Amino acid sequence: RVARRPLGTTPWLHSRSPGLDKIQLCPLRIGCMSRTHGSCLSRRSLLKPWPGCSKESLAAMATLSLSLAHPQVRALWRQAGRPQRSRGSSSRRFRHAHAAGRVQASYRGLEPLYDDGYGTVKDLGHYYRAIGELVEHDGGPPRWLCPVDAGEPAVEDAPVMLYLPGIDGMGMGLCMHHKALGTIFELRCMHIPLRDRTPFEELVTMVEDVVRAEHSASPTKPIYILGNSFGGCIALAVAARNPGTDLVLVLVNPATSFERSRIKTLLSVFSPLSDRACIAAAALLNYNIHNEVNMALSMMKSGRHPFEALSRLTSNMSSSLKHSKMLDKLPKDTLKWKIKLIKQAASYANSHIQSVTAEVLLLTSCADRLLPSKSEANRLQKKLPKCRVFFFEKHGHSLLLEHGVHVSSIIKCSSLYRHSRRYHRVHDYIPPSATDMKEADKISRGTMLKTCPAMYSTMEDGAVVRGLAGLPEEGPVLLVGNHMLMGTEIIPLGAELMRRRKVVVRGVAHPLLFPRKARTRSQGHDLFDFLNLWGGVPMTYRCMYELLAAGEFVLLYPGGYREALHCKGEEHRLFWPDQAEFVRMAAQFDATIVPFGVVGEDDLVNLLWTFDDIRSVPFGRKLLRGYSNHLKLRDTQEVIFPGAVPKIPGRFYYRFGKPIPTRGRQDVLTDRRAATELYFDVKSEVEEIIAYLLEKREEDRYRSILPRLLHRAVRGSKTEVPAFNP
């Protein structure tokens, strides 16, 4: 019978095996599946043993974490009993929360602090074992593989991500990122066997066929291409030849700088020797012992036993030595072919780079000893109109195989993860994972140590209790409170709500904190990334409308940056506008308003100057006016960042007031006076909370940092420090 061409295979590739309807992958074969435009899978796949393969071997291969399958292998997961997701109407999904608690529809099926799999691959032995299996049973033309450990995407309507490997062509360079990327993408990896001699143009055509098929099936969805080194050249070539397709490129140390690289010089020196000697020398140059030592030290700093860190260090080094034995199985002239291939790829990509209009995220290793990746990143950023660069200071060329690199987190915090042509901060938002929370803890560790926030909430009967038990269980909820200097209370507030309640607080912030221009960043997340990861949105009525419609927890500061950048002597004062800007919108969606207050900035810093001081100096008004015109949201407010010096840290105190329901308050929507009364009731409640905290903190024996440090030294670093009795 005539075989149907599977999605993702080129006509040239499929024509090599006419009349067959099975794709051979190692000792497994998987039934072909067809897909028509705009339809789902039309045929279930069947897992069958290879002739001569025992049941024990089949079971071992099926349980291997890096087993290979066709890209549509997710049908196997459905056959194995995985629950099907309901495909309700989009409006219904975005208006109602999940029945199991606080899973908002905008999260597309993911819970906050989900397990992204980072840290499950402990060493490089996992990668080398997978490579060994591929080399042992490899053969045939290039093809697309799907790592089984990536699983089925947990995100509804997940976009496709195509991984294009480096010059090795194995397709296993993402082994440390399979689960993390497979959770939010439909992940497919290109595999080029070592014995294959497919020209560069046909490799580009192979990727183009998948891109065009996916674009025809879902014209409004983006297609992600993650290109590693040599794969980055293929990604640029595909983007240049398909300017009308919505592509997002993630390039990891692209090989466009091959002509200026050390590896080219190295290969010319070792060319008289055998292929094994050349490849072994390149592997030795690529091995990043500096990163391995740093990871071992970081494990000891995080509380791991020194022997555990030493064990992983020696395991990685021994695995690389074992990997060198596989060089005996390399076909002849492999190195010459690979060099020719990478030269063609670099030349083609550089000559067509001006045609690339896709969004590009460039991940660059500053310690790359094979390619001049750092200087190449600066060159590509000037050439590509939509390029963002993320530098890794202490990582080598094999960036994806080194610990401490979280590609999925970088994509999320760069606002590149989307399901349509434009990024939507509400509907495309993905909540932080467990790894994101750990990274945020590293950033906020100093702030949390200095401020040691003590949080209180108010129950329905008016009783004040320690903790967050008084907060509503379901949204929409509008948290309304006061800003402290420079908004220093936001990080502890968001972190505590996430840690204790698994609630993402969607902060409404100044548009200044959401720059449109692409930024160049070094390793580690900054304030802008923190806002993106924690769901911050610009202060617009449309954003608030969509957040409340989605049933979110929304954090609002009516005083805005006037409170955050206040003058001397204005600590803990409210600068709210006279208009009831948020009350009617909350009532429209039956949102619960929770007033809250926070104090403690006066125990943290001393102000040196503010915009009042600048206004009093010569030319100060003109300078202030010119700086503020493009920043302020209200005509009556001016903005300038104050100067401050730190002091011996005190403590932050939070208290959430009694929730104010708006369900059934139709008078707020129709009567301006009722809306104004409710607005000033909320404001007076916040003022009362601030006065309450200022009075009660005098009773706290642990207000100063020294008693807190002594308490944790005796009881443990993770022990909750006592505070005043409410």
From TrEMBL:
Domain of life: Eukaryota
Protein's name according to its UniProt entry: Serine aminopeptidase S33 domain-containing protein
Gene3D superfamilies registered for this protein in UniProt: alpha/beta hydrolase
SUPFAM superfamilies cross-referenced by the UniProt entry: alpha/beta-Hydrolases (SSF53474)
Sequence ranges assigned to domain Serine aminopeptidase S33 in this UniProt record: 200-402
InterPro entries named in the record: AB_hydrolase_fold (IPR029058), Hydrolase_4 (IPR022742)
A Pfam family this chain is assigned to: Hydrolase_4
Secretion signal span: none
GO CC annotations, alphabetized: membrane
